[in-house]
Design a protein that fits this description.
Order of helices and strands: HEHEHHHEEEEEEEE
Number of helices: 5
CATH architecture of the largest domain: 3-Layer(aba) Sandwich
Structural class: alpha+beta
Largest sheet: 5 strands, antiparallel
CATH topology of the largest domain: Rossmann fold
Amino acid sequence: MEKEFFIAGTPVIAFKTGGLKDTVLNWNPSARTGTGFTFDHHNAGDFQHALRRALSVYHDANGSYEQMRKNAHAAVMDLSVVSLAWFREFHRIRRCLPPPPQSPKELVRFSFSIKVSDNVLLSPTSSVCVAGTFNKWLPQLFPLRYVPPISLSGESGSFEGSLILAPGTYTYKFVINEEWVFQSNQPHATDGAGNVNNVVTVVR
């Protein structure tokens, strides 16, 4: 609102708050600068004091009021300048905002298993765990349980277990009686350090 008065060359009396304290500059009689009169406290006494100062400048015979009108008119900024300043400020604030939250991936139950006949280290009484990138390579977090064969036709039992995982590719190893091994009959690959690990890709 004060900008409309400034365009007309009209000084403003304003409470020193919000944007008004930045745009309405208090009249300085010695330097002959300022675009109006401000008061610091929201009460009748301060307001009346601002009015008395304005009236004294208005009746001043030294051209103070005319100078203040020129100051007010010169204080008006072009709309393009104001718009650019607000654009830069909004852009700065936008860069400070955290990224929008990502929708969580749908989790999948994935089963790990190894037959007793697949590894010479295995027996029904073995201690078997799986460790990999899905559990920070901590074998104690995922022990497998022994599942005996369904029939007595010579099949061996297996160690099995399932985990809830997010879709993605993981590397892992079996830990049999505290010995780390990869299973050659399951997908595997060599990493940059020369370690051979089993690899699994979990999909939805």
